């Protein structure tokens, strides 16, 4: 190989290294089988805080984040550095979370970062996404807080795609201009995409009818439905899953125990609270999580080939009121990573009934 070719190859690799640092980041057992430009991380075992810092640090032009809450000093400091370096840094947060003593909103604004809040008393800006340079999307269930990164069970996907980036930039732009909740138009440019051979669906709530899209996938399950739910209160979704169990499908689920704990109280208000007890009585293999803090996932895995993930809880508010985002990823490799996480959470979970 001549010197010109060697120099070109070195330059190409260095370009990839700085443009897509997460691809070259060290991997745990969860991320050993990553696809170039498509990474999956889980907290607390993976260094999600470090990976988000690295993405912000390596931004060339812009960092746009819609975060339900932000409490990590390291992330706030990285955003401030990006702003001072002349990059376009814009942050949207939920107004109620911004009032928490741990919030870094005041720190960010005092250091020149422009932050805008939703102004609703009846719903949340519940997203947890960032778009870097209009093409790298970070999303999932993780809030950039100490608990979110160090103690809670969470999942993150990082996808490098200008088309997916345009979807998220469109949603971000609407909220930046004050179009939150039901005032947000339904205008996602590319709701169906193919990225690195993976079929991906992208939806935003409440305008896209997130629950309807989730239920369509569950209804089509041929073999199995596994789920991890921080909050699961929807009657129709629970009924569908119970019906699938009745059809002989392999159904397993882990519920956050704090949301499901007060059994007598929940039985008095069955339409408003956790569906754990209803599924447990119907004989489904369901468990209360074993994390002493929070099991914060909002995930379905269907037929070991489709992953449903994002910010919405399986609730009426998560579908009809809040600003949310959802990805449906049709890909066995991605599903296998989520299945490994499910098995770990399942094994850690408390046994909820004799059916487990």
Tell me what the structure shows.
This protein has helices at 3-19, 48-57, 73-84, 95-98, 105-110, 146-150, 162-176, 210-219, 235-246, 257-260, 263-268, 276-281, 316-320, 332-348; strands at residues 38-43, 62-67, 88-93, 114-117, 128-132, 136-140, 154-160, 192-195, 198-205, 224-229, 250-255, 285-288, 298-302, 306-310, 324-330, 350-351. The chain has two domains: 3-190, Endonuclease Chain A (Endonuclease, Chain A, 2-Layer Sandwich); 204-351, 2-Layer Sandwich (Endonuclease, Chain A). α2 packs parallel to α3. 36% of the residues lie in helices and 24% in strands. The termini are far apart. It is α+β, with helices and mostly antiparallel strands. The protein is built from 14 helices and 16 strands. The strands form two sheets. Strands 8-9-15-14-13-10-11-12-16 form a nine-stranded mixed β-sheet, with helices on both faces.
Please write out the topology.
Blueprint (H helix, E strand, L loop, with lengths): L2 H17 L18 E6 L4 H10 L4 E6 L5 H12 L3 E6 L1 H4 L6 H6 L3 E4 L10 E5 L3 E5 L5 H5 L3 E7 L1 H15 L15 E4 L2 E8 L4 H10 L4 E6 L5 H12 L3 E6 L1 H4 L2 H6 L7 H6 L3 E4 L9 E5 L3 E5 L5 H5 L3 E7 L1 H17 L1 E2 L5
Parallel strand pairs: 2-3, 3-4, 10-11, 11-12
Antiparallel strand pairs: 1-7, 2-5, 5-6, 6-7, 8-9, 9-15, 10-13, 12-16, 13-14, 14-15
Helix pairs in contact: 2-3, 8-9
């Amino acid at each position: 190989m001549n010197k010109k070719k060697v120099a070109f190859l070195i330059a190409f690799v260095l370009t990839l290294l700085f443009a897509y640092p997460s691809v070259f980041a060290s991997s745990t057992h969860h991320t050993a089988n990553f696809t170039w430009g498509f990474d999956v991380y889980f907290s607390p075992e993976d260094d999600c805080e470090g990976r988000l810092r690295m993405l912000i640090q390596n931004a060339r032009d812009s960092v746009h984040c819609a975060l339900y809450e932000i409490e990590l000093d390291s992330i706030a400091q990285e955003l401030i550095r990006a702003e001072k370096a002349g990059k376009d840094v814009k942050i949207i947060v939920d107004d109620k979370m911004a009032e928490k003593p741990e919030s870094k909103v005041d720190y960010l604004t005092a250091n020149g970062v422009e932050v805008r809040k939703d102004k609703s008393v009846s719903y949340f800006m519940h997203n947890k996404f960032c778009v870097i340079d209009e093409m790298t999307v970070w999303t999932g269930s993780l809030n950039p807080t100490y608990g979110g990164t160090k103690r809670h069970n969470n999942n993150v996907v990082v996808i490098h795609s200008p088309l997916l980036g345009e979807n998220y930039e469109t949603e971000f732009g609407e909220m930046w201009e004050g179009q939150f909740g039901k005032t947000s138009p339904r205008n996602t440019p590319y709701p169906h995409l193919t990225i690195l051979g993976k079929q991906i669906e992208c939806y935003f709530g409440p305008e896209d009818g997130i629950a309807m899209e989730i239920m369509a996938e569950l209804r089509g399950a041929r073999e199995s439905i596994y789920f991890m739910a921080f909050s699961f209160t929807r009657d129709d979704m629970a009924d569908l899953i119970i019906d699938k169990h009745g059809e002989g499908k392999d159904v397993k689920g882990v519920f956050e125990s704090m949301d499901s704990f007060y059994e007598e109280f929940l039985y008095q208000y069955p339409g408003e609270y956790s569906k754990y007890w209803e599924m447990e009585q119907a004989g489904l293999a369901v468990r209360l999580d074993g994390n002493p803090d929070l099991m914060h996932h909002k995930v379905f895995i269907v037929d070991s080939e489709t992953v449903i993930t994002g910010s919405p809880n399986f609730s009426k508010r998560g579908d009809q009121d809040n600003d949310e985002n959802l990805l449906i990823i049709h890909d066995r490799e991605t599903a296998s990573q989520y299945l490994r996480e499910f098995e770990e959470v399942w094994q850690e979970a408390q046994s909820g009934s004799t059916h487990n």
